[in-house]
Amino acid sequence: GRRGERAAEEGPAERGPGAAFHMFVLMEDLLDKLKLLSYEEEALQRHNMRPLSRHYFSLPTNPGEQFFMFCTLAAWLITKAGRPFEQPQEYDDPNAVISNVLSELRSF
What family is reported (predicted)? Predict the structure, then answer.
């Protein structure tokens, strides 16, 4: 098999010592990009939410809260990209919300 295929099948130990921390680096990069887009002022203050920690999505601490934050940010980003998108509510059906987000992203 090709190297990329093999790396996907290997566990973190086989990919190197830093592989287990890659998700933390990705989350820090995501947070930097959100800050450049002024997510704190435009998305969080509007919904009275706290800013994300550097590793908010890296570990499953509160999946319900994390899912709602993801949906809020996804809706805000879609709207920021110029598409009208209704802000999901906390108790909306998760499957319907994700379906709507994916449908909108496919239309880009």
Answer: Belongs to the IFT57 family.
